[in-house]
Amino acid sequence: MPVQPPFLFLNEASVSSNGANGKYKITGQEFFLQGHFKDNPIMPASIMLGGASASWAVLYLLEGEPVEPGKVISPSTIFFTGCEGVRAHRVCRPGDTLTLSVKQKRMKMPLATFEGAIRVGQEKAVIAEEITLTFGYADAALLPVGRDQ
Hints:
The protein is elongated and about 50 Å long. By secondary structure, it is mainly β. A six-stranded antiparallel sheet has the order 1-2-4-5-6-3, covered by helices on one side. A hairpin with a 2-residue loop joins strand 5 and strand 6 (123-134). It has one helix at residues 45-63, and strands spanning 12-15, 19-25, 79-88, 97-108, 111-120, 123-134. Helices cover 13% and strands 37% of the residues. The chain starts with 11 loop residues before the first strand and ends in a 15-residue tail after the last strand.
């Protein structure tokens, strides 16, 4: 994953043919909770969406079905470009376990669009009708030995 701590919101993950799912437990030690809000730590919805959900979409791009047979996506070329239809439904606090899912909607070089949802138990926390990433392919000459091209 190109994203690393403190922005890697991933405790467990699985990738299927059309999306990625996983969990992240808010520990209370996250750096952004120090100021959001004083004596009332709440995980910002913007971090749940742009940090957590977008990371799951990145995971799918790297580990899911190839966008184009014979081509490998370069982790250094994946960037968040935007989202549409975002709704925050629930406050998330330390101790909550977020269940995250992204499902592929459209993929055509250089854009990949997903729908995303974050839940705590059965409650909706954040949903996004569309999360869009841009990506590029790895140069075959730079691929590690043993990696399919």
